[in-house]
Prior knowledge:
A six-stranded antiparallel sheet has the order 1-6-2-3-4-5. Strand 4 and strand 5 (67-71) form a beta hairpin. By secondary structure, it is α+β, with helices and mostly antiparallel strands. It is globular. It has two helices and six strands, in the order ββαβββαβ. Helix content is 16%, strand content 32%. It has one domain (11-83): Roll (SH3 type barrels), CATH 2.30.30.
Amino acid sequence: MTIAAEPRPTLPLSMAAPQQQVRLVEIRGGHRLRKRLADLGLTVGSTLRVIQAHGHGPMIIAVRHDTRMAVGRGIAHKLMVAPHDNSAAPHTG
């Protein structure tokens, strides 16, 4: 008998709270958006930390050794994330 891992709940990055650490699990966009984000270091599996998330304006996130990046709300809504599992080794993309 095998035990299946319970699926993790996902939410758009735009819904993540400040200082929350999350893992990018899906990019809901086309090829151009995925390529543009990959060029910036945002790939599926990357660990992100939300620095600033006001109700208006862009979100500030930390990726790759605390490099900070502003992400507009429209794009943040297309980035599906799951809470980061601190027991696993961190993946920086």
